[in-house]
Amino acid sequence: QVQLQESGPGLVKPPQTLSLTCTVSGAAIINGDSYWTWIRQPPGKGLEWIGYIYNSGRTYYSPSLKSRVTISADTSKNQFSLKLTSVTAADTAVYYCARGLGAFDFWGQGTMVTVSS
Amino acid sequence: QSVLTQPPSVSGAPGQRVTISCTGSSSNIGAGYEVHWYQQLPGTAPKLLIYSNTNRPSGVPDRFSGSKSGTSASLAITGLQAEDEADYYCQSYDRSLSGSVFGGGTKLTVL
Questions:
Q1: Fewer Cβ atoms within 10 Å of its own Cβ: the N or the C terminal residue of chain B?
Q2: Measured between CB atoms, does A43 come within 8 Å of chain B?
């Protein structure tokens, strides 16, 4: 069974950088046919796809966030990470990591990140 | 404004059948990209309910079914149960945006 767990600060000041890590168990992120994704959900709102990493280094980002997002992987720790720069209150959300490119079949429990000074 | 359009809410009595629509365009559903559905119970992460238009992951009851036609897709739930009360999201790929897109979500209330 694949399990994902997000970790990182719950509070970030604007315009700092939001940094989160997703630790994966039950599957190797270095596996070339798996895609590792970040998705977020603002309070009371719907889901927004942020981007993914695959082949341990190739990335693709949402056009609306592309200028501020970096997703990277640490295969030695079986983790992948999200960095979002120049955050504002609009970036306040629950951030989920998930596996998948089309359908997202395994999800982390999510971590709430609040952007506030 | 979500790329995929869902009704904000639907409701039904226990035992009834409800459907949730997901309307897209020629750059996503209409272009042949697959539609996936998720169930999100309050305070929890979304759970994959239907993948590739019509398929159920192991463990999902056959009360849940998906369909797709043209630029739209639908999720049907039969034999409605109290534990089905949740938010439901559709998801697909959009070639204009070059990425995954979600519907705005539909809140199902079991009366």
A1: N
A2: no
